[in-house]
């Protein structure tokens, strides 16, 4: 815990030290959580300051030491709708969601570079969840590959995820490829995903310049209940090995005679059954040997 240098009397210093030990003991008893992200802390503090039942001591702890009691976060009426925004997203440390576990909230919107959503596994009562990581060229990688931590959000009705900005802006982004964790959420009605990013590189040579693959995308059951087909397009000409005119997720994509020096293969995937959509702007880097 960093503290600014200041001149303190011995009594005040002792009081602060005592408070610090008290908070440490409380943390050990799991009565408090730490909220290190200043933007998240500011938004939660703003909500709590409007609650007459939250004492000044609790507010002071959050203002000065980034700690808040779990009980204060579990008032569902106070956190009926919560929007968390990152103002200083140049620093990846400001994307932390640590501290919101234990929160009870129905509508939750998070707009910041999404890197780790593990704390969401312990957020309660969420019905509408929006994760917006809509940034480009941050100097660090953001985005998530799966939604495993959300599988226990049993009350979730609407899920929206976006880390896509403009077509072709994929550098520094991790594409969301596996949304199968949503399968067991019976209340879920709407799934909307707009994702972008790079896949693992492939290795080609002048003599061996063909490439074949199936896309590593695992959708949830919401995209399979009816016979829904998907479309894949690419600026780099490729072939789809399919027995039908429509493309299936299991179809193989094949690029032949890729010109030496080509830096990447790009794929645009779009599937839009009724009430849902999954759109992905993917890039496959090429390393020439």
Structure description:
There is one protein chain. With about 290 residues, this protein is α/β, with parallel strands linked by helices. The protein has helices at about 10-30, 40-50, 55-65, 70-75, and strands at about 30-35, 65-70, 80-85, 105-110, 130, 160, 190-200, 200-205, 210-215, 230-235, 240, 250-255, 265-270, 275-289. The strands form three sheets. Strands 3, 4, 5, 6, 7, 8, 10, 13 and 14 form a nine-stranded mixed sheet that branches. The protein has a three-stranded antiparallel sheet with strand order 9-12-11, with no helix packed on it. It has a two-stranded antiparallel sheet with strand order 1-2. It is elongated.
Which blocks of ≥5 consecutive residues have pLDDT under 50?
A: 1-29
Tell me the Rg in angstroms.
23 Å
Query: Gap between N and C termini, in Å?
Result: 49 Å
Q: Which range does the strand content fall in?
A: 15-25%
Helix content: 10-25%
Please state the average pLDDT score.
Answer: 81
* Element pattern in H and E: HEHHEHEEEEEEEEEEEE
| Anisotropy-based shape | elongated
Compile the SSE list and pairings.
Elements lengths: L9 H19 L3 E3 L3 H11 L7 H10 L1 E3 H4 L7 E5 L21 E5 L16 E5 L25 E5 L27 E9 L3 E3 L6 E3 L17 E3 L5 E3 L10 E4 L8 E8 L5 E12 L1
Parallel strand pairs: 3-4, 4-5, 5-6, 6-7, 7-14, 8-14
Antiparallel strand pairs: 1-2, 9-12, 10-13, 11-12, 13-14
């Amino acid at each position: 815990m960093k503290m600014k240098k200041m001149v303190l009397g011995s009594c005040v210093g002792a009081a602060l030290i005592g408070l610090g030990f008290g908070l440490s003991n409380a943390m050990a008893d799991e009565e408090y959580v730490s909220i290190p992200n200043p933007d998240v802390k500011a938004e939660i503090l703003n909500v709590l300051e409007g609650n007459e039942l939250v004492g000044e001591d609790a507010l002071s702890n959050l203002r000065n030491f980034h700690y808040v009691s779990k009980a204060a976060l579990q008032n569902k009426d106070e956190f009926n709708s919560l929007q968390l925004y990152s103002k200083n997203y140049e620093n990846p440390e400001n994307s932390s969601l640590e501290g919101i576990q234990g929160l009870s909230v129905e509508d939750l919107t998070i707009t910041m570079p999404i890197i780790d959503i593990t704390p969401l596994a312990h957020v309660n009562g969420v019905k509408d969840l929006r994760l917006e990581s809509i940034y480009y060229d941050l100097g660090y990688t953001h985005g998530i590959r799966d939604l495993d931590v959300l599988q226990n959000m049993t009350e979730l009705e609407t899920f929206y995820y976006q880390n896509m900005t403009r077509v072709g802006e994929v550098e520094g982004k991790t594409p969301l490829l596996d949304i199968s964790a949503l399968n067991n959420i019976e209340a879920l009605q709407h799934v909307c995903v707009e994702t972008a990013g790079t896949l693992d590189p492939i290795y080609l040579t002048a003599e061996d310049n063909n490439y074949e693959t199936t896309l590593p995308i695992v959708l949830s059951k919401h995209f399979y209940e009816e016979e829904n087909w998907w479309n894949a397009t690419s600026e780099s000409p490729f072939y789809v090995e399919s027995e039908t005119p429509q493309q299936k997720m299991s179809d193989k994509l094949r690029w032949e005679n890729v010109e030496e020096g080509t830096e990447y293969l790009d794929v645009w995937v779009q599937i839009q059954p009724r009430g849902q959509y999954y759109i992905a702007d993917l890039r496959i880097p090429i390393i020439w040997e």
